[in-house]
Amino acid sequence: MNKKERPVLTDLIKEGTSEMEKFQNEVIRPVIKMQHNLLITSFKNYLLKRKVDFTVLPDKKKRSKVTAIYKTDNNYKNFTLGVIIGHFSTDEFTFYSDNASEINRRVLQITSQRIKDSLLEVV
User: Fold this and answer.
1) Which of 34, 36, 45, 88 could, after both became Cys, cross-link 92 (CB 3.0–4.6 A)?
2) Under a CB-based contact definition with an 8 Å cutoff, are residues 99 and 107 in contact?
């Protein structure tokens, strides 16, 4: 199995940011970027299993559909969280455990936006 390495996103790390922002930029965003292909593939699979024909929808409706899926489908949200949280170290997971609801919100928001920005890869 190939071990993936997290990309380093240096342009996001600034002085004076909160601990949560620092965690988001040093941990969450690199993991999401590293898992990009899996996230896109899993979203395609989700659409296929639910028989959603994404190809006939205009871009605005596609974006709305992505938003709706991330708002309403708890199973898919939990799957997405697992894909990301599974790459946390023990220390990162400890921080996550203390701030789970805020981190979950950020992970789902970033992931949803990433899929919307990658619509060409989805269809």
Assistant:
1) 88
2) no
Amino acid type, 113:
Q
Q: Which of left, alpha, beta for 69 (phi over 0: left; psi -120 to 50: alpha)?
A: alpha
Q: Name the nearest CA neighbour of 34 among 64, 73, 3, 65.
A: 3
- Of the candidates 100, 112, 10, 24, the residue with the CA atom closest to the CA atom of residue 68: 112
Confidence class for position 82, pLDDT limits 50, 70, 90: very high
pTM across the whole model: 0.88
Quote the Cα angle for 84-87-88, to 5°. 100
